[in-house]
Amino acid sequence: MFVVSKKLAYLPPKFLRSISTDILRIGSVTRAVTPRINNDQSLIPIFYYEKNLFPPSFVRHLEWLMKKDKLGQDALFVGPPGPTRRHLILAYLELTRKPYQYLQLTRDTTDSDIKQRREIQNKTALFINQAAVNAAIYGHTLVLDGLEKTERNVLPILNNLLENREMNLDNGQFLVSTQRFDELLKLYTKEQLDKLNFIRVHEDFRVIALTLPPLSDYKGNSLDPPLRSRFQLRDIGNEPLTFTEYTNLLKTLHPNIDNQFLEQLLSLASLINSTDLETLKLIHFPFDRLDQSVRLAELIPNVTLADCLHRIYPYEILYKNSKESIQAIQHMFKKLTIKQQIENSSKKIISINRNETQAIVDYEMNKKQYQITVSAHNTSSPIIPPTFIKTPYHDQLLSDLMLSHAIGDICLIGPKGCGKSLIIDQFASLLNYPIEYFVLYKDLSARELLQQRITNENGDTLWQNTPLIEAAIHGRLLVLDGIHRLNNDTLVSLQRIIQDRELFLPDGTRLLRHDRYDNLKNPNKNIRRIHPSFRIIALAEPPSNTNPGSNESSSIKSSSEQNWLNAETLNLFLYHQMRSLNLAEERQIIYSLLSCSNQSIPAIDHLLQFVHELRNSPETQLKTVARSLSTRNVLRIAKHLKNNSSNYHTQLRDQLIRQTSAPFLPRLVQDAFYEALNKSGLEKNQETISSNINWKQSTTDNKQLKSS
């Protein structure tokens, strides 16, 4: 976000020693900058530095970084979550014209991801250099993002490379420091050293690492002391931007925004991160996302501040089970005279006019019309819309999603079976977006999010793109279904593709944002262009933790599913909450899909009433059963009841028991469910008992036949 400077400058040409060398000055430090001529030029960051928008405190960070670079020292940036630390480093590398290798560290990172990976080509095993080795040989800067996320026994393999610039490689080669290699050249020839498999480490090789502060608010492993001692540390969290610097920066980026809006926005963010409220353990407010709220207010001037805040800091979801935290934030709203609740404003999409990669949306809010530009797809064949029954609530939600789509990527949070996938299908059809679905699971690694390793018929190893990469290249709408199931660091590994639209892939390919790719003069075949229409929508269930700041564990779900919405993931998406259908809405949808909107069927009304009693029940056992009675399953039962309406009590009870697999539920849950059936007038009779026994017996027999 903040990668621009007004105090960074190149000295005038009269001070230059040669035509091809410039002198860069940051603060009081100067250094020579030589442009790259070979293929390394494509690895130099671009468009991270923008003039006249760099706060003075950030200039001091870059000045410190240049001092360490001149001394030949490796650096470690410590700071709160967000892209600021990374953007500072990439802005410095852009100014100094230094190519870089980027390595996102996770719990799945191994030594083969750092040094060399073995591949099989033409039935021969080959060792392919990875980020650390390539950076050492060619003099690139190695950026290690997320030191706290790796296992403690992984990164120590870099200790010798950091301290002595030496490393043993798996293919028998040996990296030798610049000084020692040059001394050996005085005694031996280059050919003799090559036969010994000695490789010279480039003198420009540097390592810059990123990590989070060792606080209880952030998850991670403690750093290995020998590894930590090899870096020069800079805590950018100790010197954050001041209130005035934030105000001036946002005002420069968005000159038409109201001053009162900025003051209230920054005041609330500062209060949430205040040290006076440490006992509440509030999740760190994502300051790097303030720009998203201001952009939203600039698009729609009459949008409320509460509406903007809920998209970047959904506190009602974060602290659902913590009344004390919600009351504290509500008190902040009241103190700053901010309306606590989002107004029931009328939002409506009037029309959508699509062109090649964009669409002009005529948007109405509170009887005022606006035009917003959003990303769209230029596919020749129109996307067939799904069977979608409109309700006022879903129309409002689609309007909110369209507004967030104009700004960034979206995360839709809602309980299981509330219709998240269907409304995304409807949203995509409005903009003619082809969808790439990526269903996520718990054990998915960060590497498998990007590419999966396969073998061909000859036994050679290949890398196959996942739906994420295919969507990025072809400009489709990527739907990440179930991000709450991923481990925290696996989800955070997507930060570069989300925040920067840039990515290094396991097979050596690099994805670049469309404008950065278009700026390259001669891009090589290993660089792919990210389509400007590419967007991400993530689907998730609400976090179930009792207190976001606590370390309590649950026996029902893993800690990653409980606390997936945290300080790091808040920097990724614009968040929207989708509730379950109420009785009237679900009745309207069921009757419309059954083509009997003008009549009332007692069996279906009884079904809907019973299902909503289960969903709203305070008993945990009944809520467990209600999870299997989603709208899709209720529709399945309703179709059966429509065709068999006579003596529906017995049939309804039988269908509910079959749909919930009641005979196989735990005894306490089963008893509570049967009691709820009896209370609702669906008492059991002899016919129902015999049918249940026969169904259970037939199911058991089928399992025995399959096993035999």
UniProtKB/TrEMBL annotation:
<feature type="domain" description="ATPase dynein-related AAA">
    <location>
        <begin position="76"/>
        <end position="231"/>
    </location>
</feature>
<feature type="domain" description="ATPase dynein-related AAA">
    <location>
        <begin position="409"/>
        <end position="547"/>
    </location>
</feature>
<dbReference type="GO" id="GO:0005524">
    <property type="term" value="F:ATP binding"/>
</dbReference>
<dbReference type="GO" id="GO:0005737">
    <property type="term" value="C:cytoplasm"/>
</dbReference>
<dbReference type="GO" id="GO:0016887">
    <property type="term" value="F:ATP hydrolysis activity"/>
</dbReference>
<dbReference type="InterPro" id="IPR011704">
    <property type="entry name" value="ATPase_dyneun-rel_AAA"/>
</dbReference>
<dbReference type="InterPro" id="IPR039891">
    <property type="entry name" value="VWA8"/>
</dbReference>
<dbReference type="InterPro" id="IPR027417">
    <property type="entry name" value="P-loop_NTPase"/>
</dbReference>
<dbReference type="Pfam" id="PF07728">
    <property type="entry name" value="AAA_5"/>
</dbReference>
<protein>
    <recommendedName>
        <fullName>ATPase dynein-related AAA domain-containing protein</fullName>
    </recommendedName>
</protein>
